[in-house]
Design goal:
Structural class: alpha/beta
Number of domains: 1
Strand order of the largest sheet: 6-7-8-3-9-10
Order of helices and strands: EEEHEEHEHHHEHEEE
Distance between the termini: 24 Å
Number of helices: 6
């Protein structure tokens, strides 16, 4: 039986905000499955941002458990948590954070040497595969600083996928992008998750109305409600 890449049991967390009400998650129990796209929706400061950070192991919960590939992580130290985050998770942030003087290929391949520590020949094969999946093979030798907005985000997506993570955490997808380009990025992200068999958990830019997620988790003061497409 396949193990779900991410699971929560009675997860609770709270974060105070001086500019508004606290973000609160209470007793959230859920199984995130491979190959599915999960959209965290809901009001600003309603808890979706907090939940995304806890699920990405960027913040510890106040109580409850996060389970990664069947292994509870609550008793792990900082170094072990960092190792799991590096190897099991990919991150697509609202800004691409590419190195402008490096090519797309160099930006994408970098985690293979830093995290996976693979040989150059193997890195080349893996990088070509991911560039093809994301659809940016044609700009592999372009400098990142010369890319347009969409190609920047696609290159950042390829970099997030390069080490074949089990979970991809995506923050405010489509920020500062036109609707059509943002929808293309989201569609590529969803197709990539299915092809590679990973769970995507994402928040979207406020201006987007994209309804192709496999599951929407509406996060608010009353809890988390699931809507399946």
């Amino acid at each position: 039986m396949a193990i779900d890449p991410l699971q929560t049991i009675n997860l609770s967390a709270e974060r105070m905000d001086q500019d508004g009400p606290a973000e609160i998650i209470r007793d959230f129990t859920y199984q995130f499955r491979s190959g599915s796209f999960y959209h965290l929706a809901g009001p600003d400061r309603g808890g979706k941002r907090l939940l995304l950070e806890v699920l990405g192991l960027l913040l510890p919960p106040d109580s409850g458990e996060v389970i990664v590939d069947g292994c509870p992580i609550s008793d792990l130290g900082i170094d072990d948590l960092g190792e799991i985050r590096n190897r099991k998770f990919g991150f697509l942030f609202s800004a691409p954070f590419l190195l402008p003087s490096f090519t797309v290929l160099e930006n994408v391949a970098m985690p293979l040497f830093k995290i996976a520590q693979v040989e150059a020949s193997e890195a080349s094969v893996i990088t070509e595969e991911i560039l093809e999946i994301v659809g940016v093979s044609g700009i592999a030798t372009s400098l990142a600083g010369q890319l347009d907005e969409l190609d920047e985000r696609l290159a950042a997506l390829a970099r997030a996928l390069i080490h074949h993570p089990r979970v991809l955490i995506a923050e405010l997808v489509g920020s500062n992008m036109r609707d059509g380009e943002a929808e293309l990025l989201l569609s590529t992200l969803r197709a990539s998750s299915r092809r590679l068999g990973l769970a995507v958990i994402a928040t979207l830019a406020p201006h987007l109305c994209w309804r192709q997620a496999d599951v929407t988790l509406e996060v608010g003061p009353q809890g988390v409600e699931e809507f399946i497409r």
